Protein backbone atom coordinates (compact mmCIF):
# COMPACT_ATOMS: atom_id res chain seq x y z
CA UNK A 1 0.00 0.00 0.00
CA UNK A 2 1.11 3.64 -0.35
CA UNK A 3 2.53 4.82 2.95
CA UNK A 4 3.65 8.11 4.44
CA UNK A 5 7.18 7.09 3.58
CA UNK A 6 6.61 6.52 -0.13
CA UNK A 7 4.04 9.25 -0.58
CA UNK A 8 6.48 11.92 0.56
CA UNK A 9 8.65 12.71 3.52
CA UNK A 10 7.75 10.83 6.70
CA UNK A 11 6.17 12.74 9.55
CA UNK A 12 8.89 14.14 11.80
CA UNK A 13 8.53 14.22 15.58
CA UNK A 14 10.58 17.24 16.64
CA UNK A 15 11.95 17.41 20.20
CA UNK A 16 9.48 19.12 22.54
CA UNK A 17 6.45 18.34 20.39
CA UNK A 18 3.85 15.65 20.81
CA UNK A 19 3.92 12.79 18.32
CA UNK A 20 1.22 13.38 15.68
CA UNK A 21 -2.02 11.44 15.96
CA UNK A 22 -2.83 11.49 12.23
CA UNK A 23 0.31 10.40 10.40
CA UNK A 24 -1.12 10.17 6.88
CA UNK A 25 -4.10 11.54 4.95
CA UNK A 26 -5.12 10.06 1.60
CA UNK A 27 -8.03 11.52 -0.37
CA UNK A 28 -9.58 10.70 -3.71
CA UNK A 29 -12.17 12.86 -5.48
CA UNK A 30 -13.03 14.98 -2.46
CA UNK A 31 -14.32 18.32 -3.73
CA UNK A 32 -11.46 19.90 -5.72
CA UNK A 33 -8.94 17.24 -4.65
CA UNK A 34 -8.58 14.49 -7.24
CA UNK A 35 -5.86 12.66 -5.33
CA UNK A 36 -3.77 13.44 -2.27
CA UNK A 37 -1.44 11.29 -0.17
CA UNK A 38 0.53 13.23 2.47
CA UNK A 39 2.23 12.76 5.83
CA UNK A 40 1.44 15.04 8.76
CA UNK A 41 3.62 16.02 11.69
CA UNK A 42 2.89 17.61 15.08
CA UNK A 43 2.53 21.02 13.36
CA UNK A 44 1.56 21.28 9.69
CA UNK A 45 0.97 24.40 7.60
CA UNK A 46 -1.13 24.06 4.45
CA UNK A 47 0.11 26.98 2.39
CA UNK A 48 -1.46 28.32 -0.78
CA UNK A 49 -3.58 31.10 -2.28
CA UNK A 50 -7.29 31.55 -1.65
CA UNK A 51 -9.38 29.01 -3.53
CA UNK A 52 -6.55 26.53 -3.92
CA UNK A 53 -8.19 23.78 -1.85
CA UNK A 54 -6.69 24.20 1.63
CA UNK A 55 -10.11 24.30 3.29
CA UNK A 56 -11.25 21.24 1.33
CA UNK A 57 -8.40 19.24 2.85
CA UNK A 58 -9.42 20.21 6.38
CA UNK A 59 -13.08 19.66 5.55
CA UNK A 60 -12.40 16.02 4.65
CA UNK A 61 -11.07 15.44 8.17
CA UNK A 62 -13.91 17.45 9.68
CA UNK A 63 -16.47 15.37 7.77
CA UNK A 64 -15.33 12.28 9.69
CA UNK A 65 -15.62 14.12 13.01
CA UNK A 66 -19.05 15.54 12.15
CA UNK A 67 -20.36 12.16 10.99
CA UNK A 68 -19.25 10.47 14.22
CA UNK A 69 -20.32 13.29 16.53
CA UNK A 70 -23.79 13.69 14.95
CA UNK A 71 -24.59 11.40 12.01
CA UNK A 72 -23.35 10.81 8.49
CA UNK A 73 -26.64 12.05 7.06
CA UNK A 74 -26.35 15.30 9.01
CA UNK A 75 -22.69 15.80 8.03
CA UNK A 76 -23.46 15.31 4.33
CA UNK A 77 -26.59 17.45 4.44
CA UNK A 78 -24.61 20.36 5.93
CA UNK A 79 -22.34 20.16 2.89
CA UNK A 80 -25.16 20.07 0.35
CA UNK A 81 -25.23 16.29 0.01
CA UNK A 82 -22.75 13.70 -1.25
CA UNK A 83 -23.18 14.86 -4.85
CA UNK A 84 -21.80 18.28 -3.87
CA UNK A 85 -18.72 16.70 -2.30
CA UNK A 86 -17.69 14.32 -5.06
CA UNK A 87 -15.19 16.03 -7.34
CA UNK A 88 -16.70 17.14 -10.60
CA UNK A 89 -14.97 16.08 -13.81
CA UNK A 90 -15.80 15.04 -17.34
CA UNK A 91 -16.62 11.51 -16.26
CA UNK A 92 -19.31 10.72 -13.69
CA UNK A 93 -17.48 9.64 -10.54
CA UNK A 94 -20.14 9.39 -7.87
CA UNK A 95 -17.66 8.38 -5.14
CA UNK A 96 -15.24 10.09 -2.77
CA UNK A 97 -12.80 8.29 -0.48
CA UNK A 98 -10.91 9.23 2.70
CA UNK A 99 -8.19 7.37 4.56
CA UNK A 100 -6.63 8.47 7.86
CA UNK A 101 -3.64 6.61 9.32
CA UNK A 102 -3.15 7.23 13.04
CA UNK A 103 -1.02 6.38 16.02
CA UNK A 104 -1.86 6.57 19.72
CA UNK A 105 0.52 7.65 22.50
CA UNK A 106 0.71 4.02 23.69
CA UNK A 107 2.27 3.05 20.35
CA UNK A 108 -0.74 1.32 18.78
CA UNK A 109 -1.32 2.22 15.12
CA UNK A 110 -4.12 1.80 12.61
CA UNK A 111 -6.22 3.42 9.95
CA UNK A 112 -9.79 4.38 9.11
CA UNK A 113 -10.99 4.40 5.50
CA UNK A 114 -14.38 5.24 4.04
CA UNK A 115 -15.81 5.57 0.55
CA UNK A 116 -19.16 7.33 0.10
CA UNK A 117 -21.00 7.41 -3.19
CA UNK A 118 -24.16 8.83 -4.66
CA UNK A 119 -27.08 6.53 -5.34
CA UNK A 120 -29.48 6.42 -8.28
CA UNK A 121 -32.19 8.22 -6.31
CA UNK A 122 -29.86 11.13 -5.50
CA UNK A 123 -29.13 9.94 -1.97
CA UNK A 124 -25.88 8.45 -0.70
CA UNK A 125 -24.48 5.07 0.23
CA UNK A 126 -21.45 4.00 2.27
CA UNK A 127 -19.86 1.83 -0.40
CA UNK A 128 -16.93 0.74 1.75
CA UNK A 129 -15.62 1.32 5.25
CA UNK A 130 -12.61 -0.18 6.96
CA UNK A 131 -10.93 0.28 10.31
CA UNK A 132 -7.93 -1.43 11.84
CA UNK A 133 -6.08 -0.91 15.10
CA UNK A 134 -3.46 -3.41 16.10
CA UNK A 135 -4.83 -6.86 15.27
CA UNK A 136 -8.49 -5.76 15.43
CA UNK A 137 -10.19 -4.83 12.17
CA UNK A 138 -13.46 -4.72 10.26
CA UNK A 139 -14.48 -4.12 6.67
CA UNK A 140 -17.96 -3.21 5.46
CA UNK A 141 -19.16 -3.12 1.87
CA UNK A 142 -22.58 -1.61 1.05
CA UNK A 143 -24.07 -2.55 4.40
CA UNK A 144 -22.60 -6.06 4.55
CA UNK A 145 -19.82 -7.10 6.91
CA UNK A 146 -16.99 -8.55 4.81
CA UNK A 147 -14.64 -8.80 7.82
CA UNK A 148 -16.31 -8.95 11.22
CA UNK A 149 -14.74 -7.12 14.18
CA UNK A 150 -15.82 -9.93 16.51
CA UNK A 151 -17.56 -13.32 16.30
CA UNK A 152 -20.74 -11.62 17.48
CA UNK A 153 -20.69 -8.22 15.76
CA UNK A 154 -23.16 -5.33 15.57
CA UNK A 155 -25.12 -5.14 12.29
CA UNK A 156 -24.00 -2.81 9.49
CA UNK A 157 -26.03 -0.31 7.48
CA UNK A 158 -25.28 1.28 4.12
CA UNK A 159 -26.30 4.77 5.29
CA UNK A 160 -24.28 5.00 8.53
CA UNK A 161 -20.65 4.76 9.56
CA UNK A 162 -20.03 1.37 11.13
CA UNK A 163 -17.46 2.84 13.52
CA UNK A 164 -20.37 4.23 15.56
CA UNK A 165 -21.55 0.65 16.19
CA UNK A 166 -18.04 -0.75 16.55
CA UNK A 167 -17.37 1.80 19.32
CA UNK A 168 -19.26 -0.58 21.59
CA UNK A 169 -16.29 -2.92 21.28
CA UNK A 170 -13.33 -2.00 23.51
CA UNK A 171 -10.80 -2.33 20.67
CA UNK A 172 -12.45 0.38 18.56
CA UNK A 173 -13.66 2.78 21.25
CA UNK A 174 -10.36 4.73 21.35
CA UNK A 175 -10.56 5.25 17.57
CA UNK A 176 -14.12 6.55 17.80
CA UNK A 177 -13.28 8.86 20.70
CA UNK A 178 -10.18 10.29 19.00
CA UNK A 179 -11.77 10.88 15.57
CA UNK A 180 -15.02 12.29 16.99
CA UNK A 181 -13.27 14.88 19.17
CA UNK A 182 -10.96 16.41 16.57
CA UNK A 183 -11.53 20.18 16.60
CA UNK A 184 -11.69 22.31 13.44
CA UNK A 185 -12.18 26.05 13.75
CA UNK A 186 -13.24 28.94 11.56
CA UNK A 187 -14.02 31.52 14.23
CA UNK A 188 -16.70 34.15 13.69
CA UNK A 189 -16.22 37.41 15.68
CA UNK A 190 -19.93 38.27 15.41
CA UNK A 191 -20.77 34.92 16.99
CA UNK A 192 -18.26 35.58 19.77
CA UNK A 193 -19.97 38.90 20.56
CA UNK A 194 -23.44 37.36 20.87
CA UNK A 195 -25.05 36.16 24.10
CA UNK A 196 -24.70 32.39 24.42
CA UNK A 197 -26.49 29.59 26.22
CA UNK A 198 -24.22 27.94 28.81
CA UNK A 199 -23.00 24.39 28.22
CA UNK A 200 -20.52 22.00 29.87
CA UNK A 201 -17.54 23.77 28.33
CA UNK A 202 -15.82 20.53 27.27
CA UNK A 203 -15.04 21.19 23.60
CA UNK A 204 -14.91 24.57 21.88
CA UNK A 205 -17.53 24.81 19.12
CA UNK A 206 -16.34 25.32 15.54
CA UNK A 207 -17.49 28.97 15.47
CA UNK A 208 -16.45 29.62 19.07
CA UNK A 209 -20.03 30.14 20.22
CA UNK A 210 -19.53 28.39 23.58
CA UNK A 211 -16.31 30.26 24.40
CA UNK A 212 -17.69 31.73 27.67
CA UNK A 213 -18.45 28.20 28.92
CA UNK A 214 -14.93 27.06 28.02
CA UNK A 215 -13.45 29.98 29.98
CA UNK A 216 -15.69 29.16 32.93
CA UNK A 217 -14.30 25.64 32.97
CA UNK A 218 -10.73 26.92 32.68
CA UNK A 219 -11.22 28.98 35.84
CA UNK A 220 -11.44 25.74 37.82
CA UNK A 221 -8.23 24.51 39.50
CA UNK A 222 -7.30 22.03 36.74
CA UNK A 223 -7.56 24.75 34.08
CA UNK A 224 -6.24 27.79 35.94
CA UNK A 225 -2.67 27.62 34.60
CA UNK A 226 -4.01 27.13 31.07
CA UNK A 227 -6.19 30.23 31.33
CA UNK A 228 -3.20 32.24 32.55
CA UNK A 229 -1.18 30.97 29.59
CA UNK A 230 -3.93 32.09 27.20
CA UNK A 231 -4.00 35.53 28.82
CA UNK A 232 -0.21 35.84 28.52
CA UNK A 233 -0.37 35.26 24.79
CA UNK A 234 -3.37 37.58 24.46
CA UNK A 235 -1.50 40.39 26.26
CA UNK A 236 1.40 39.93 23.86
CA UNK A 237 -1.05 40.60 21.01
CA UNK A 238 -3.12 43.30 22.78
CA UNK A 239 -0.84 44.82 25.47
CA UNK A 240 -3.61 46.81 27.16
CA UNK A 241 -5.58 43.66 28.01
CA UNK A 242 -5.17 42.25 31.50
CA UNK A 243 -7.61 39.33 31.69
CA UNK A 244 -10.61 37.73 30.03
CA UNK A 245 -13.54 35.92 31.54
CA UNK A 246 -17.27 35.37 31.29
CA UNK A 247 -20.28 37.25 32.58
CA UNK A 248 -23.81 35.96 33.21
CA UNK A 249 -26.64 37.96 31.66
CA UNK A 250 -29.83 36.40 32.97
CA UNK A 251 -29.84 32.78 31.76
CA UNK A 252 -27.25 33.62 29.06
CA UNK A 253 -23.54 34.40 29.20
CA UNK A 254 -20.97 36.42 27.29
CA UNK A 255 -17.29 37.32 27.29
CA UNK A 256 -15.86 40.11 29.42
CA UNK A 257 -12.45 41.77 29.18
CA UNK A 258 -10.37 43.70 31.71
CA UNK A 259 -8.44 46.42 29.91
CA UNK A 260 -6.35 49.41 30.96
CA UNK A 261 -7.22 52.64 29.16
CA UNK A 262 -4.39 55.02 28.32
CA UNK A 263 -4.61 58.22 30.34
CA UNK A 264 -6.97 56.72 32.90
CA UNK A 265 -6.07 55.86 36.47
CA UNK A 266 -4.36 52.59 37.39
CA UNK A 267 -7.60 50.64 37.49
CA UNK A 268 -8.63 48.13 34.86
CA UNK A 269 -11.98 48.68 33.17
CA UNK A 270 -14.35 45.90 32.24
CA UNK A 271 -15.68 45.73 28.69
CA UNK A 272 -18.17 43.31 27.10
CA UNK A 273 -17.34 41.38 23.93
CA UNK A 274 -19.44 43.75 21.81
CA UNK A 275 -16.82 46.47 22.44
CA UNK A 276 -13.85 44.39 21.29
CA UNK A 277 -12.32 44.31 17.81
CA UNK A 278 -12.55 41.37 15.42
CA UNK A 279 -8.82 40.77 15.80
CA UNK A 280 -8.96 40.58 19.60
CA UNK A 281 -11.90 38.20 19.56
CA UNK A 282 -10.37 35.95 16.90
CA UNK A 283 -7.05 35.89 18.76
CA UNK A 284 -8.80 34.81 21.95
CA UNK A 285 -10.78 32.12 20.11
CA UNK A 286 -7.65 30.74 18.44
CA UNK A 287 -5.72 30.64 21.72
CA UNK A 288 -8.55 28.84 23.49
CA UNK A 289 -8.91 26.38 20.59
CA UNK A 290 -5.21 25.59 20.85
CA UNK A 291 -4.71 25.45 24.60
CA UNK A 292 -7.99 23.81 25.65
CA UNK A 293 -6.09 20.61 24.83
CA UNK A 294 -3.97 21.03 27.97
CA UNK A 295 -7.12 20.34 30.00
CA UNK A 296 -9.23 18.31 27.57
CA UNK A 297 -6.68 15.70 26.52
CA UNK A 298 -9.17 13.77 24.38
CA UNK A 299 -8.55 16.31 21.62
CA UNK A 300 -5.81 14.76 19.49
CA UNK A 301 -6.09 17.18 16.53
CA UNK A 302 -6.83 20.91 16.20
CA UNK A 303 -7.27 22.45 12.76
CA UNK A 304 -7.51 26.23 12.29
CA UNK A 305 -8.34 28.04 9.07
CA UNK A 306 -6.25 31.16 8.41
CA UNK A 307 -5.57 32.20 12.02
CA UNK A 308 -3.89 35.41 10.84
CA UNK A 309 -7.16 36.93 9.53
CA UNK A 310 -8.02 40.26 11.24
CA UNK A 311 -4.75 40.26 13.21
CA UNK A 312 -2.11 42.94 12.79
CA UNK A 313 0.98 41.56 10.96
CA UNK A 314 3.05 42.42 14.04
CA UNK A 315 1.10 39.74 15.96
CA UNK A 316 2.23 37.00 13.56
CA UNK A 317 5.25 36.07 15.66
CA UNK A 318 3.15 35.68 18.80
CA UNK A 319 0.63 33.55 16.92
CA UNK A 320 3.41 31.39 15.49
CA UNK A 321 4.83 30.84 18.99
CA UNK A 322 1.37 29.86 20.24
CA UNK A 323 0.95 27.31 17.44
CA UNK A 324 4.35 25.80 18.22
CA UNK A 325 3.61 25.80 21.97
CA UNK A 326 0.25 24.08 21.45
CA UNK A 327 1.81 21.34 19.31
CA UNK A 328 3.38 20.03 22.53
CA UNK A 329 -0.10 18.99 23.65
CA UNK A 330 -1.98 18.16 20.45
CA UNK A 331 -1.46 17.88 16.71
CA UNK A 332 -2.01 21.25 15.00
CA UNK A 333 -2.99 21.75 11.33
CA UNK A 334 -3.17 25.31 9.99
CA UNK A 335 -4.19 26.76 6.64
CA UNK A 336 -2.50 30.02 5.73
CA UNK A 337 -1.41 32.34 2.94
CA UNK A 338 0.34 34.81 5.28
CA UNK A 339 4.04 35.51 4.58
CA UNK A 340 4.29 37.20 8.00
CA UNK A 341 3.12 34.08 9.85
CA UNK A 342 5.58 31.91 7.94
CA UNK A 343 8.51 34.31 7.98
CA UNK A 344 10.63 32.45 10.51
CA UNK A 345 13.58 30.11 10.08
CA UNK A 346 12.20 27.73 12.73
CA UNK A 347 9.54 26.56 10.25
CA UNK A 348 11.03 23.63 8.39
CA UNK A 349 10.24 22.08 5.03
CA UNK A 350 8.66 18.98 6.56
CA UNK A 351 6.06 21.20 8.26
CA UNK A 352 4.83 22.66 4.96
CA UNK A 353 2.29 21.26 2.51
CA UNK A 354 2.07 23.33 -0.64
CA UNK A 355 -1.41 23.72 -2.14
CA UNK A 356 -2.02 25.00 -5.68
CA UNK A 357 -4.97 24.86 -8.04
CA UNK A 358 -4.76 24.06 -11.74
CA UNK A 359 -7.95 24.19 -13.81
CA UNK A 360 -10.02 23.60 -10.70
CA UNK A 361 -7.89 20.64 -9.51
CA UNK A 362 -6.09 20.98 -6.19
CA UNK A 363 -2.55 19.66 -5.92
CA UNK A 364 -1.34 19.08 -2.35
CA UNK A 365 2.15 17.81 -1.56
CA UNK A 366 5.36 18.59 0.25
CA UNK A 367 7.47 21.31 -1.38
CA UNK A 368 9.84 20.16 -4.11
CA UNK A 369 13.43 19.05 -3.53
CA UNK A 370 15.00 22.36 -4.55
CA UNK A 371 12.83 24.31 -2.13
CA UNK A 372 13.49 21.83 0.66
CA UNK A 373 17.21 22.26 0.13
CA UNK A 374 16.94 26.07 0.24
CA UNK A 375 14.98 25.91 3.51
CA UNK A 376 17.35 23.37 5.05
CA UNK A 377 20.33 25.60 4.27
CA UNK A 378 18.48 28.61 5.76
CA UNK A 379 18.83 30.52 2.49
CA UNK A 380 15.22 31.69 2.77
CA UNK A 381 12.29 31.43 5.14
CA UNK A 382 8.98 29.93 4.07
CA UNK A 383 7.48 33.41 4.25
CA UNK A 384 10.10 34.85 1.89
CA UNK A 385 9.51 32.06 -0.61
CA UNK A 386 5.76 32.56 -0.34
CA UNK A 387 6.13 36.26 -1.12
CA UNK A 388 8.13 35.33 -4.23
CA UNK A 389 5.60 32.65 -5.20
CA UNK A 390 8.32 30.01 -4.88
CA UNK A 391 6.68 27.23 -2.87
CA UNK A 392 5.92 24.68 -5.59
CA UNK A 393 4.57 21.26 -4.61
CA UNK A 394 6.61 18.18 -5.39
CA UNK A 395 4.53 16.73 -8.21
CA UNK A 396 6.43 13.45 -8.08
CA UNK A 397 4.97 12.91 -4.60
CA UNK A 398 1.39 13.06 -5.96
CA UNK A 399 0.25 9.55 -6.97
CA UNK A 400 -2.00 8.77 -9.91
CA UNK A 401 -5.63 8.52 -8.87
CA UNK A 402 -5.94 4.90 -9.99
CA UNK A 403 -2.76 3.95 -8.09
CA UNK A 404 -3.91 5.24 -4.71
CA UNK A 405 -4.83 2.27 -2.56
CA UNK A 406 -6.93 3.14 0.44
CA UNK A 407 -7.99 -0.34 1.51
CA UNK A 408 -6.13 -3.22 3.15
CA UNK A 409 -8.81 -5.84 2.52
CA UNK A 410 -9.78 -6.95 -0.97
CA UNK A 411 -12.61 -9.45 -0.85
UniProtKB/TrEMBL annotation:
<dbReference type="Pfam" id="PF13304">
    <property type="entry name" value="AAA_21"/>
</dbReference>
<feature type="domain" description="ATPase AAA-type core">
    <location>
        <begin position="270"/>
        <end position="343"/>
    </location>
</feature>
<feature type="domain" description="ATPase AAA-type core">
    <location>
        <begin position="43"/>
        <end position="79"/>
    </location>
</feature>
<dbReference type="GO" id="GO:0000731">
    <property type="term" value="P:DNA synthesis involved in DNA repair"/>
</dbReference>
<dbReference type="InterPro" id="IPR003959">
    <property type="entry name" value="ATPase_AAA_core"/>
</dbReference>
<dbReference type="GO" id="GO:0016887">
    <property type="term" value="F:ATP hydrolysis activity"/>
</dbReference>
<dbReference type="InterPro" id="IPR014555">
    <property type="entry name" value="RecF-like"/>
</dbReference>
<dbReference type="InterPro" id="IPR027417">
    <property type="entry name" value="P-loop_NTPase"/>
</dbReference>
<dbReference type="GO" id="GO:0006302">
    <property type="term" value="P:double-strand break repair"/>
</dbReference>
<protein>
    <submittedName>
        <fullName>Chromosome segregation protein SMC</fullName>
    </submittedName>
</protein>
<dbReference type="GO" id="GO:0005524">
    <property type="term" value="F:ATP binding"/>
</dbReference>
Amino acid sequence: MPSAENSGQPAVHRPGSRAPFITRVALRDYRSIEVCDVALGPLTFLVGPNGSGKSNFLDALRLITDALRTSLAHALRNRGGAEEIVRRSRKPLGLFEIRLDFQFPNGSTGHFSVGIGTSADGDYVVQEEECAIGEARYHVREGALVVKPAPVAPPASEDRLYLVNAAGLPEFRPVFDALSTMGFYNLNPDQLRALQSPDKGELLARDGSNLPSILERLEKPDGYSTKKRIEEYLRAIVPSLHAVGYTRVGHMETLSFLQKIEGADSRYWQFPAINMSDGTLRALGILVALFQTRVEQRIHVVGIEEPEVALHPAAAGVLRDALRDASQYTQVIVTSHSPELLDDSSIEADEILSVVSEQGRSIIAQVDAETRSALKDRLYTVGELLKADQLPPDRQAVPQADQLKLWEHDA
